[in-house]
Amino acid sequence: MRIQPVSLEGLSGLIKDYRQIDDRAMQFFDYNPFVQNGFYQRLDELTNKTYERKKLTDVLLESNKGWGAPAATIDNINRLKQPNSVVVVGGQQAGLLTGPIYSIHKLISIIKLAKEQEEKLGVPVVPLFWVAGEDHDFEEINHISLPIAPHMKKYKILQRQTKKESVSHMELDQEEAVKWLENIFRNLEETSWTKPLLTKLTSLIEQSKTFVDFFSRVVFTLFEQEGIVLLDSGDPKVRELESEFFVEMIHKRPEIAEGVRSALNKVSSLGYSVALDAEVNDGHLFYHLNGERILLHVDEGGSWVGKNEECKFTEEELIRVAKEQPSLLSNNVVTRPLMQEKLLPVLAFIGGPGEIAYWSVLKPAFEVLNVKMPPVVPRLSYTIVEPKTEKVLRQLAVRIEHVIQNGSAVDKLSWLKGRTTPPVEELSDQVKLTIEKAHKPLRDIAKGLQADLGQMAEKNLLNILNELDYLEQRISYTIKEKNFQTIQKFDWIEATLKPDGGLQERMWNVVYWLNLYGENWLKELIVQEIDWEADHFCVYI
Predict the structure, then answer these.
(1) What residue stretches are annotated with the Bacillithiol biosynthesis BshC N-terminal Rossmann-like domain (predicted)?
(2) What Rg value do the Cα atoms of the chain yield, rounded?
(3) What are the C-alpha distances in Å from 521 to residues 226, 368, 433?
(4) Would you call the peptide bond into 150 cis, given omega within 30 degrees of 0 as the criterion?
(5) Residues 41, 45, 50: CA angle, nearest 5 degrees
(6) Can you tell me whether residue 27 is helix, strand or coil?
(7) Distance between CA 45 and CA 42 in Å, rounded?
(8) Domain tally for the chain?
(9) Which residues are CB-contacts of 165 (< 8 A; sequence separation ≥ 6)?
């Protein structure tokens, strides 16, 4: 395996400036995550805080054991009982087979940073992945994508969401899941890894009751030796731990909402884009009514109400819910980081570009709760390059950085044009001009004799030009047929390096490479030395 850092053009201004440690972006965060001193400072701050470690680890032990956690994970949960232990945390939805491969990149980032910081700080640093099990958007997690060049094919599980409920509570239809998995494997290349992998994943489905169960078991299978700890935010027992913090957020809602709104205005004034709507009357909490999550805001009378007035509470009533039925509440993108900070001894947070944009407006909210924002570390971003792809790039004499940035469609078109001299499009245009010029005297005579005869002459020219267009298309088609294999190569690098115009990590699923190469490349990737400030990496396996 070798790794090549790659610069990405077109990154959002915020994440670009953040990686470059530009003061304009850094002012919205409490720590510089690219220097070790920031982690020393953060550790000092955490030593003055206390956490409900016994209650937290009891909940984590129960849930992680229920997912078949390996010994390394159980050991790490027990290490969290130590008063000087801290966590590196990041999270994602519970996608099928972990979803787009950026979830795997995030897991690797969490594991790598935890290992690095434990060695440097000399305290237990536990990698923890926050599974967003309270999310309801089933359409976001019910499929994976794999390549059929030049496009991606979506493999969607044929299970319907019959009622609105969180992913934590949604039962996995094991029969449909097995059919879905077998359909995927019918379209994968047969290798020595195929049958064992299919057998293992089928077994994990049969052991899983919910989508979070299945996600968790897959993660533990892939990272068995790494000690990754999973926390399901939709777990009612986790909500019980959050009860007092919900109360605090309800009490301090006005300051949180005003602070976030003010920060959003300031961030936007610098030209940075944040995909967040924030108003001073936002509640930044969800209430769960008959399984449906309802985002709350505060009306002019001070009551907490749903968007369409599905529910209504006085502040005292909502506080009672937080104390007595905390499982009926959950966080949004603003309060989830705050809850994470209150619940866990967070040494650092690993986030993607969109998450870091959200976090840029949260500093005032952290200050309202009398805490600092942890170091926010951009997750590692990879493009996996298999030998087949590397060979094709050499054959086509195309640079990988160019394809990752721009795709290969323009290169393919340029190559095709070069198959004829002069290119057929140019030759066709020249012939059309010649014909129009030669045809003009006939059109002029026809127009001079009779109006309808002039119209006939114009139509005659149009018919001739249309026939030329058809001939041009047939010539182009024949050229493509004769060069089909090379066109396939262009289509392949487009599908593998720039699928549907985006990065590979946003489309491809890890099962493609597990089927071809097993799991060892993941283990090797974890131990590779990297520069956390780099935009992106090509991983040659």
Answers:
(1) 1-380
(2) 29
(3) 14, 44, 59
(4) yes
(5) 155
(6) coil
(7) 5
(8) 1
(9) 136, 291
* pTM score: 0.89
Give the C-alpha separation, 416 to 461, whole Å.
29
Cβ proximity of 395 and 485 under 8 Å:
no
Using DSSP, state whether 498 is helix, strand or coil: coil
Q: What CA–CA distance (Å, rounded) separates 426 from 24?
A: 50
pLDDT of 367 above 90: yes
Please give the average per-residue pLDDT across 372-382, as a whole number.
98
pLDDT at 306: 96
Structural domain contains residue 26: no
In-domain check, residue 524? no
Contact 404, 383 (CB under 8 A): yes
Amino acid code (one letter) for 519: E
In a domain, residue 523? The reply is no
Pairing relationship of beta strands 346-351 and 86-92 according to DSSP bridges: parallel
Distance of alpha carbon 1 from alpha carbon 213, whole angstroms: 32
Q: How far apart are the first and last CA of the chain?
A: 5
- DSSP annotation of 509 reads B
- In terms of residue numbers, what domain contains 468? 385-517
Helix (H, G, I), strand (E, B) or coil at 23: helix
* Sequence-distant (≥ 6) Cβ neighbours of residue 269 within 8 angstroms: none
Decide if 441 is inside a domain.
yes
Count of C-beta atoms within a 10 Å radius of residue 517:
16
